[in-house]
Structure prediction request, 237 residues.
Amino acid sequence: MAVVKASKSGATSVAVSCRGIGKSFITKDIEVTALRNVDLDIKTGEFMMLVGPSGCGKTTLISIIAGILKPSTGTCIVEGVDLNALTDTELLDFRAKKIGFIFQSFNLIPTLSLLENIAIPLIINGALQDEAMARAEVMLAKMGLASKADRSPTQLSGGEQQRVAIARALVHQPSLLICDEPTSALDHATGESILTLMKDISAEMKTTFVIVTHDARIFKYADRIAHMNDGAVTGIE
Ligand SMILES: Nc1ncnc2c1ncn2[C@@H]1O[C@H](COP(=O)(O)OP(=O)(O)OP(=O)(O)O)[C@@H](O)[C@H]1O
Ligand SMILES: [Mg+2]
Prediction:
């Protein structure tokens, strides 16, 4: 695996470093440029938010950072690893260990119970069934859903499904948690409590958070906010 050495000084380490990231999609002979020449650095333990209008490339960018999509141009180094240099198998393994991802559409598995859904990342990483289920139960309780552990995700409200997706993304304690609109289906109080929980986890475990959001109510939790427009990062505050 291609590991890029951390800085010699041991100064604040960088969790994500994107350089010259471009991404085009070709559908029916039409080329759509979703990202153009994006440079972005995110520090370890940072709470970074990504905002911008619909279609500006936010989901595309975080999918590249998560190793779900390959960029058309540029390099993305995550936790010291150049994602371009990994084989498909290495990339799968890297993602399973290091990255949690909360999708804009929650991607819960309807044929599994809530508890089983949350346990998946642990099972993938080789945990024993009993231990995985016990840890999933703790996460579900943190989300206030302990009493619904045996239900299918199809029997939940949108906000409840979102909380299960958050629990699943956090259960294997990833170094980098990437969230696409994590509070879009939550009421104000639940959204605030989820952000508080994420902040606590970030402080406690030095988890780096990258959060795409339209929700101005949660901007106050950000260490920095990167603004995107038309496939580019236009400013950072
Ligand atoms: N698989 C794909 N094939 C073709 N075009 C795509 C694909 N995925 C995204 N795009 C296009 O790339 C651009 C950026 O899409 P992206 O999903 O990254 O936007 P976004 O900022 O996340 O928007 P939203 O806030 O609505 O979720 C859009 O023009 C979109 O139509
Ligand atoms: Mg999106």
Observations:
- Residues 188-205 form the longest helix (18 residues).
- The chain has one domain: 14-236.
- The CA atoms of residues 21 and 74 lie 4 Å apart.
- Strands lie at 14-27, 30-43, 47-51, 73-78, 81-82, 99-102, 176-180, 208-212, 224-229, 232-236.
